[in-house]
Amino acid sequence: MGAEGLNLVGISYDSQEVLAAFSKQFGITYTLLSDKGSATIARFGILNTVAEEAVGPNRADPQVAADVRKYVSEVGANAQMVGIAHPGTFILDPQGRVTSRFFEESYIERNTVAEVLVRVRGGAAATGRRVTTDHLVVTSYPSDAAVAPGNRFALSTVAFVREQFDSARGVYRYLGQVLSPLARDTYRLEPHDVRPRLPKLPETLQGKPNNDPLLPAFRNDRLNTVAVIVDQRDVPALAWRLEAGGKHIVIAGDLRGQREPLLRLAKGADILVLPLLVAADGAETLVLADLARRSGARQLVLTRHTPATLGREEALGAKIREHYTGAISFANDLDCVKP
After folding, report:
1. Its pTM surpasses 0.85
2. 92: closest CA among 33, 30, 11, 6?
3. Residue 159 has what DSSP assignment?
4. Which ranges in the chain belong to alpha helices (H)?
5. Which fold does the domain 212-339 belong to in CATH?
6. What class, spelled out in words, does domain 2-121 have in CATH?
């Protein structure tokens, strides 16, 4: 971390004596600070109050017991745990201002140092792993070469794209000029790792953690892109909002999971692109119609045709129009849709 210009400091509710013994036992060389009484932990908004509930009058409550297993310990809590913090990482600039923070819901899940660096700085920390077949080459660039249960790690889009298009060793090396900043009269490809960004916090660092689901991804004088995380089975995925020329286009590949973040992303869109998913009871069709209506999108473009939807466009369109009054189109490959 020193090579990255970062200093590591840990803070705990333990006493100085306990931390000194802990450091000696495990050979810890970075600074550990004692916050006995947890005043600083509380100011940062990460005091774990579940531990106190677990030894209070409601300790027999099944919900409290479930919270203890998730946020404190699988084996239960005791009075010595009162005052602990939710485990996580803050990144501070040289002026002491918080610029990023990394926390997970369960105490078991932890961000590794390399994963945090990938999100803050971009790029991959571990060597890429390549899998090849006769028709496909896949290379993944994880933040860590090895992880333990509960570790969080990240894949680098930047490193992946460079591997694909590098002019010397890429899979599509004949297209290497798309990554060259000196290339002229060609398309330019500028990959970016999408990561949560934290708005400026008050100097007191008080207040609730930032739960804004909108993730600023890229911005220049012509284009602004924003994303939200969506649930696409077990695969991490993003829905996108592209803003250019005074027009807003929102593209989502799935409607499972929480839809409020996607609704926020789609508010006032000129074009809303959604997958045409059809269940036997028609529930998924109603979901996308309701999302289009509540977002106020001017035009709904439906993609991902399947045998269950082909030939039924007129009937499905009529069903959607019962709830959504904007323009509807069923997209085909290479269609050009104007906002």
Report:
1. no
2. 6
3. H
4. 16-26, 39-43, 50-54, 62-71, 113-121, 157-165, 260-266, 283-295, 313-321
5. Metallo-beta-lactamase; Chain A (3.60.15)
6. alpha beta
